[in-house]
Amino acid sequence: DERIILQAQITLYGNDERLLMARDITRLHRLEQMRRDFVANVSHELRTPLTVLTGYLETYADNADQLPPRLARGLSQMQGQTTRMQNLVNDLLLLSRLELEQSGDDHLPLDIGALLENVCRDADALSAGRQQVTVEIAEERTLLGSEQEVRSAVSNLAFNAVRYTPEGSHITLRWKRHEHGACVEVEDDGDGIDPEHVPRLTERFYRVDKGRSTTTGGTGLGLAIVKHVLLRHDARLEIDTRPGHGALFRCVFPATRLAAANEQGSRVRR
Ligand code: ADP
């Protein structure tokens, strides 16, 4: 690839003068591409050995009653850690795909109501009765987007709400109209997040509480995935953190993703 990539900045002055500054970022761009390819390849290569390990561990776990207690405890630790590694590898792969590939299905009509109800059930299962998870859905239920990608974004937000709120909290998944179109909201009444962290929350591996996060089962990539899915859907993430009163994550989809979806939806039904 012999292309040269320039970054341009134009400054306008009152007296009709303009200043154009151009920077050659070809090298930077190539390095970034190499980083992405590398992460994608490494994650892919790690999958097979992890599958083999998981298989053997499962076989041993099936016969755990024949093992000395100390070994059985170690075995269960190993299973926990391989699951964690698998989640990490899967999230890394998903993130590289979101960065690298064009998705073919991000303009298909999807039933966002059914999707939210589904994620609500999964979040409820993860919560195992510790929190109360409910869903509120507006009339218009069709969105133009990739079902798989939107599902992973909403799941990440809902699972975070379960992981980071104390017992007895309420979590609401919502689909409603918004002045710019419509939005998905994931709201909880947990401890919220200190506003100082908000600008960095969607960075890879950024965590508010470094110590606690390793025990919550998250990979540190959840909100980075949410950000990239929304970018691909012309949508925006708003975070309202209200420390002490819970957190609200809002994904705002533009009206173009709804009107078009309704047209396509009715065409499909006819
Ligand atoms: P992970 O959850 O795997 O650590 P994420 O990118 O999904 O990574 O989230 C980043 C951080 O944001 C979390 O570590 C947590 O500190 C904070 N966070 C996310 N959602 C919530 C929430 N609903 N309430 C409080 N803190 C949250």
TrEMBL record:
Q: Where in the cell is it found?
A: Cell membrane
GO cellular component terms given for this protein: plasma membrane
Domain Histidine kinase positions: 41-257
Q: Name one GO molecular function term.
A: phosphorelay sensor kinase activity
Q: What class of enzyme is it?
A: transferase
User: E.C. number, please?
Assistant: 2.7.13.3
Which UniProt keywords are listed?
Answer: ATP-binding, Cell membrane, Kinase, Membrane, Nucleotide-binding, Phosphate transport, Phosphoprotein, Transferase, Transmembrane, Transmembrane helix, Transport, Two-component regulatory system
Q: Which reaction does it catalyse?
A: ATP + protein L-histidine = ADP + protein N-phospho-L-histidine
Q: Name one GO biological process term.
A: cellular response to phosphate starvation
The reply on keyword ATP-binding is: yes
The UniProt function text for this chain reads: Member of the two-component regulatory system PhoR/PhoB involved in the phosphate regulon genes expression. PhoR may function as a membrane-associated protein kinase that phosphorylates PhoB in response to environmental signals.
Q: What is this protein called?
A: Phosphate regulon sensor protein PhoR
